[in-house]
Amino acid sequence: MPMLRPTCETTIAPNTTANRPAFAFEAAVFAVLATLGVCSRLLIEIPNFSAVAACALFGGFYFRRRWMVVALPIVTMLLSDLALGFYSPMLMASVYLSLAMAAALGRVVRSNPRLGFGAGAMLAGSVLFFLCTNFAVWAGSQWYTQDLKGLAHCFTLALPFFRYTLMSDVLFASAIFGAWALARRFGARAAVATA
Fold first, then answer.
1. Which of 9, 35, 128, 158 has its CA at a distance of 20 to 30 angstroms from the CA of residue 26?
2. Please, what's the largest Cα pairwise distance for the chain?
3. By C-alpha distance, which of 30, 25, 28, 24 is closest to 75?
4. Residues in CB range of 65: below 8 A, 6 or more apart
5. Radius of gyration of the chain (CA)
6. 10-residue block means of pLDDT along the chain (195 residues)?
7. Residue 55 to residue 176: CA distance in whole angstroms
8. Angle at CA 13, nearest 5°, toward 8 and 14?
9. CB 88 within 8 A of CB 135
10. Is the whole-model pTM more than 0.70?
11. Nearest to 139 by CA among 151, 129, 149
12. Contact (Cβ atoms closer than 8 angstroms) between residue 52 and residue 37
């Protein structure tokens, strides 16, 4: 089974000059991922179709600094919500929490870097997003009766949106992890060629 490998695992002491280039590179990756997530929310008009969960999953896998893992989905959502407008606090909290869980799944993939495990984590992130956000819609609205029948009705009506969530997560996660794998392969070849 192919193995995924996160960033270079050499340990560099904090606050050293050797650590600055690594942090600068991680900050650049953070900015690229946040920009991708924000642009996908602002420019794609398909409901629940965005790169944010895939970026959070990759961020959890890639970043060594835990604060970057947590900050990536929050910053991405805040910036895009500033442009799109804020909504129900309960629903916002469930969206942010489910994206933080996607980042946590990325940390799990980092510790078990198998391709099938990564695909399972991506699917789990999509399902968690569906369950958390639609539970919040049911709990915080007057559209559904506050019983199991109302909850089932809410989840049933949300199934078409789950299709978009899953499609976007597969597409963007494949593109992000694929681009990273290609960059690593070409970077390794370039390093061997110049050695």
1. 128
2. 68
3. 30
4. 23, 26
5. 18
6. 48 46 87 96 94 95 92 96 92 94 90 77 93 94 90 94 95 92 74 56
7. 8
8. 105
9. no
10. yes
11. 151
12. yes
